[in-house]
């Protein structure tokens, strides 16, 4: 299906809010159709309710909501930002997003009403924190009307951890809590994905498949006993059936290396050997470690230019790159930035001295000091301004930047591969797509300009 294409613009006035205001360091490249951030309106420091609500309503209406919806949303944002939405106390932890799930609230109300020991209390608190993180992702996805693959993958990993932890809690307290309702929240997050396929891999060694089958045969004959959480059993079945594995599953296999010291015991002597085989054994876990490095190297979209000088460089915005969006006002559509708009964005970014406006993973609570853009250029091949190596095919007008990473904690995460790309965030104005006649005239004009 051909979706309409809207061009995003900014107002060049320094007093206008349309701009790129932050660059985020992210764990997936920003140069993908599903990873450009659009800032959601939040109360500013010192702003009172009478100032915030009208500003918020105007913004939400521009995002495609009706007046009544916008007012409700804005009052909800105000309440969440300043008053919180949940007073549930889970052994010292007060969840902030449990208002999104009445069943989660009910489950944890029951858990905290029980007379359990200190260890169990800590586990219940941890489970609540994991569930709250899933709801936080879900709210972010709903607010932005689109999910990214990394949000889905993070939520799936968190769900695995949550199910495992709840299973352990139930064993200790002698009860069984049905937490299948959490699956609905994962499905909600997935439903906001652009129509695209997850990357998956099936090139793990046959020995890993056989190791998983050995574990399953042993469990069939002797039972799992106290060994194996739900994720370990699921992983054994995936490997035994030659199912495709996501990058996140491979990462979890690789991290199982920490259990190697228990892997040489005999089957039946504790859980170490059984679970090691369930996760693919020596061959599977060693393959996962190699594969993870290979995948992450391919996905790196900025480069470490100098380890000694702590410099990273990469693309910030690609001219005419189509970015999938879906909202109530425009439905499914694409947006793009022209070379001319990107130049205006870069100029306004510099004029407003945003070179040190950097955060982690588009989280406004993770603004970092000591990361500064010191170099910025826009590709113009006629003028001899070429893109970085590895991005030779990007269009003229694409924006690249270099950052000096003085912050040691951030630098160590860059070197470890936790951050692999840039992603800009800001507010932009929609421009209606051109009619077929206008598009034809534009193409003719572009061809004539190319000939001259």
How is this structure best described in words?
The chain contains 14 helices and 13 strands. It is α+β, with helices and mostly antiparallel strands and 452 residues long. The strands form three sheets. Strands 3-12-2-8-9 form a five-stranded mixed beta sheet, covered by helices on one side. A four-stranded mixed beta sheet has the order 6-7-1-13, with no helix packed on it. The model is unreliable at 30-40 (pLDDT under 50). The chain has three domains: 5-31 and 301-451, no CATH class; 84-191, no CATH class; 206-299, no CATH class. It starts with a strand and ends with a helix. A hairpin with a 2-residue loop joins strand 8 (358-360) and strand 9 (363-367).
Defining traits:
14 helices, 452 residues, 5-stranded mixed β-sheet, 13 strands, 4-stranded mixed β-sheet, alpha+beta
